[in-house]
Amino acid sequence: MNVPQQDGVQVSGTTTLAAGTELTIEMVTASGEDDAFVKTPTTTVEYVEGGANTWSVTEDFGDESAGTEFDVRVTGPDSNTPLTANEETVPGVVTAPPAVDEFTFSDQRSGGASVTVDTFNTTQGGFIAIQNADGERLGTSSDLATGEQTRVAVSLDEDVEENQELTAVAYRAEGAPYTDDDGNAITRTAQVTVEDADPADFQVSDLSPQNAELDEPGTAVEVSATVTNDGDEEATQDVELRIDGQTLNTQSVTLAGGESTTVTFEADTGSLEFGTTYVHSIATADDDTSGALTIGPESTPEPTPTATEEPEPTATEEPSRRQPRSLKTRRRTLMTATVTELASVLSWHCWRSSVLRSWLSAARLANN
Q: Above 80 in pLDDT, residue 179?
């Protein structure tokens, strides 16, 4: 709920409660707001024949700061019982006082089906009505947001066929006209010259992003552009999102002569390939604008380090404590062995000689 920064603001609603039921409308600033306020006006339910009953209160917001947020809660006779939907509060905000900061409507030629308002800059948004010199309303714009709006095309209910002076009237969203300090409706007048209408011409501009880089396929990309009907006639065209000339998505757009709109697509990049640059574009039947969409190279996974087994130590045999003998020692040993063997042989021969001598001696004795 938006309330203007002024006194005497009416806040109203509907209810299923019986007529005459007393209500309290609690309006309390949201947590964290610097300029806190608490407003608790009371009212009674009004009967409405054939429809939902209503309630309304009048409250002053002239001293509150624009942009201040607050919560609204409706309670019955028992103030602890909220009557708002689902027992929740309704958010509200104090808006700047209704004012028109800029409003221009230049002399122009037209095919008779529409006219274009150059600028419409307001504090609370609204719409523009076009009327003739007799005050007859000929057409109404779409709802316009707060802030500056440019090249607002207003389609006329019936084509005008003669050159004439037309008046644009600035309206607030709730239907009341914006007024000046004297209370008069704020209007602008232009001379409209009716000529043979130029055919619709849908031009495309302001592609965003112009160039995009993605790390990998599959990432969604939001692509937008402005489409303007540079012709005089109102028309409807398909606006396409393309990748390398292939249509990915389509929107149907209707524009009056001179009207603009922003189209937005979400591009699915799941079928694209690593390390490739594509041309992405937004196109109408009359025009297109394009940019570059690059998918980065596929990353190479780093090798997983492998643990290297440490070799088990091999037992080294201890060298024999016996030291190798020298050549001289070996010779000495060999000589010792030879002498020993020789002595054994000599000893055997001596024994044999002794036995022989004993046998010969015995033999001699026997012969004697």
A: yes
Structure tokens at 126: 């609204």
Adjacent-strand bridge partners of 352: none
Q: Quote the Cα angle for 107-155-253, to 5°.
A: 120
| 338 pLDDT tier (thresholds 50, 70, 90) | low
**Which pLDDT score is estimated for 2?**
85
Can you give the length of the chain in residues?
A: 368
pLDDT value of position 79: 60
Q: Which helix (H) or strand (E) holds 116?
A: strand 114-122
Domains and CATH numbers, the chain: 2-95 (2.60.40), 100-194 (2.60.40.3580), 202-295 (2.60.40.10)
Helix, strand, or coil (residue 345)? helix
**84: which residues sit within 8 A by CB, 6+ positions away?**
72, 73, 74, 90
Cβ count near 320 (within 10 Å): 7
Do residues 33 and 40 make contact, with C-beta atoms less than 8 angstroms apart? no
Instruction: Answer yes or no: pTM beyond 0.70.
Output: no
Q: Compute the chain's Rg from CA coordinates.
A: 54
Q: What is the mean pLDDT of residues 59-77?
A: 90
Helix H or strand E encompassing 332: helix 327-367
DSSP characters over 81-141: SB-SGGG--EEEEEEPPP-EEEEE---EEE-SSEEEEEEEEESS-BEEEEE-TT--EEEEP
In this prediction, residues 101-105 reach a mean pLDDT of 97
Q: How many angstroms separate the CA atoms of 160 and 91, rounded? A: 44
Band the pLDDT of 357: cuts 50, 70, 90: low
